[in-house]
Amino acid sequence: MILNGYSQDKRKIEWAEKVRLSWQDFQGTPDENIDFSANTNSGMSYFWNYSTSTGKPELTHEVKSNFYPDLSWVKEVNNPEYLLAHEQLHFDITELHVRKLRKRLTEYKVGRSVRQDLKKLYKKTEAERVAMQNRFDKETSHSQIKEAELRWRQLIASRLAEYEDYTR
Fold first, then answer.
1. Is the pLDDT of residue 41 over 90?
2. Distance (Å, whole) CA 102 – CA 92
3. Cβ count near 144 (within 10 Å)
């Protein structure tokens, strides 16, 4: 199924370079106990397969950046385009870390403990993703500090370009 240009599977929207989030994608119920105006719920998913059927170790993998509409929400906002760009940047940060994980998986030399090694790579990348998401909201005060917001837009754009080889 397609929703706003994104492929959707079980209420997940995959990140796509040329398609941006819209407020229609935010279908969750707002948490009235939280001060900020919107919430993006996104994350990484990955699949891998290891085989020696060719006589040498082969690792295949697929890593995706997903947005979860039912867990993402928006309240009334004064500057909807500006806030939507902030929420898109959260999704872009997830995509950046998907690319980092793809790079790490591509560079991984298959060893004896494949399952544990890949789990460590994922956990490390996920911890970095969560830390960056938190730092982004802290430094921008959840989009309230416009100068910081603009710096983050530039930073993430440059980092995505840096990992362009790891776009699907």
1. yes
2. 15
3. 11
